[in-house]
Specification:
This protein has 123 residues and is mainly beta. The protein has a single domain, classed as HesB-like domain (Hypothetical Protein Aq_1857, Chain: A, Sandwich), CATH 2.60.300. It contains two helices and nine strands, in the order βαββββαββββ. It has a six-stranded mixed beta sheet. The protein has a three-stranded mixed beta sheet with strand order 1-6-7. Strand 4 and strand 5 form a beta hairpin. The longest helix has 13 residues.
Length: 123
């Protein structure tokens, strides 16, 4: 079995599944990047209503059950090795909000303290 370009934890897939159950007319999620943040790029995960058109480029799709995550082919080289996770609010553990978090492969990128922005490493 081929290794996925990105990894998605069970917690993240479970949350995505719940979001899709509550949303109507959706096709999955699009995972890409936007410029900005304190480190150059921000991770961008959004619910999409229609299958994205990548102008004849074939996206990697990571699927678990009904949940599909399309990896934007234009951003793919920056996202290699990234793990998407979901943290559930838990005051006793000092987690004061529920949110998706992104973990980068430290050999390929570095992140700031917020974990939302990153900088690819050059070799």
């Amino acid at each position: 079995m081929a290794k996925n370009i990105i990894n998605i934890t069970k917690n993240a897939f479970n949350k995505m599944d719940k979001i899709m159950e509550l949303s109507k007319n959706n096709n999955g999620f699009l995972f890409g990047i936007t410029s900005g943040g304190c480190n150059g790029f921000n991770f961008d995960l959004k619910l999409i209503k229609e299958k994205p058109d990548f102008n004849k480029m074939k996206p990697n799709i990571i699927q678990n059950g009904k949940v599909k995550v399309y990896v934007d082919p234009m951003a793919e080289m920056y996202l290699i090795g990234t793990t998407i996770d979901f943290l559930e609010e838990n005051y006793s553990k000092g987690i004061f909000e529920s949110k998706f978090i992104y973990k980068v492969d430290r050999d390929l990128a570095s992140t700031c303290g917020c974990g939302v922005s990153f900088t690819p490493k050059t070799k």
